[in-house]
Amino acid sequence: MSRAGAGRLTARGVVRRFGGIAAVDGVDLVAPPGRITALVGPNGAGKSTLFDCLSGAARPDEGRVLLDGCDITRLPEHARARLGLARTFQRIAVFPTLTVAENVLVGAEQVRRHGARAATDRALTLLGLAAARDAPAAELPTGTLRMVELARALAAGPRVLLLDEPSVGLDAAETARLAAVLRALAADGLPLLLVEHDTELVSELADAVYAMAAGRVVTAGPAARVLADPRVGLSWGEATG
Ligand SMILES: Nc1ncnc2c1ncn2[C@@H]1O[C@H](COP(=O)(O)OP(=O)(O)OP(=O)(O)O)[C@@H](O)[C@H]1O
Predict the structure, then answer these.
(1) Is the Cβ atom of 35 under 6 angstroms away from ligand 1?
(2) What is the pLDDT of residues 69-126, one digit of tens each?
């Protein structure tokens, strides 16, 4: 996809509290260009809350979020989106009455002044959605809708892509297609940060893994090492969802 250049997303000492409880409790994290970084952990570990702090859906109570070294901590979500931070959600959020192409175009037009239609066409082709472009979203199965969401994020020409549980609801063939697309995007220089419960997919895809529990990073490093760490329950993936 056309990008002004891939970015580097950094969290430094991010804290986010609800009442007196720190859902995210001092997290440091880097999503570097051209790398797939995964965030794993049990339910309630703070992964989605951290994503909210990174994307701008929530403001950290402490700490900083940097995009290419620039402090974006106080910027609202739409301003971060304009700087190239794109996100997909755990719960699919497409407009059911719009077609596939219209849904993707909405994403492109939110952040682009020019070239939204061309970007939409490129994203649809990349994700194998060209044949379904005129189908109403309401008629599509979950697997296709996840691809529509990803296409919408890509059509915005992101410099960083945050993916919250991208494989939920996908069958084996769709998961393989997703993995191939994510690998291609990373090879093209895009930094990807994903929350993912499917440990098999994480071990296959991720260059680096951060394991969270109770708001903190328990361990981080290469996928093979982190996933083999006894503090990182492999059962997280299967037992939770
Ligand atoms: N809006 C909120 N108000 C109060 N508490 C919240 C809110 N959002 C999250 N929490 C709490 O913060 C903690 C972290 O939740 P979060 O959803 O970030 O975890 P998670 O790792 O994403 O879990 P899951 O894998 O289930 O999505 C949990 O204890 C949760 O109950």
Answers:
(1) no
(2) 999 999 999 999 989 999 988 788 889 999 999 999 998 888 877 899 999 999 999 9
Q: What is the 3-state secondary structure (H, E, C) of the chain?
A: CCCCCCCCEEEEEEEEEECCEEEEEEEEEEECCCCEEEEECCCCCCHHHHHHHHHCCCCCCEEEEEECCEECCCCCHHHHHHCCEEEECCCCCCCCCCEHHHHHHHHHHHHCCCCHHHHHHHHHHHCCCHHHCCCEHHHCCHHHHHHHHHHHHHHCCCCEEEEECCCCCCCHHHHHHHHHHHHHHHHCCCCEEEECCCHHHHHHHCCEEEEEECCEEEEEEEHHHHHHCCCCCCHHHHHCC
pLDDT band at 2 (very low <50, low <70, confident <90, very high): very low
Report the atom number in ligand 1 closest to the C-alpha of 197.
25
Q: Give residue-wise pLDDT tens across range 172-203.
A: 988 998 999 999 999 999 999 999 989 999 99
Give the distance (Å) from ligand 1 centre to CA of residue 49: 6
To test ligand 1's pocket by mutation, which of 49, 59, 198, 240 has the most ligand atoms within 8 angstroms of CB? 49
Strands 85-88 and 36-40: unpaired
User: Which atom of ligand 1 is closest in space to residue 41's alpha carbon?
Assistant: 21
Query: How much is the ipTM here?
Result: 0.96
State whether the beta carbon of 45 lies less than 6 angstroms from ligand 1.
Answer: yes
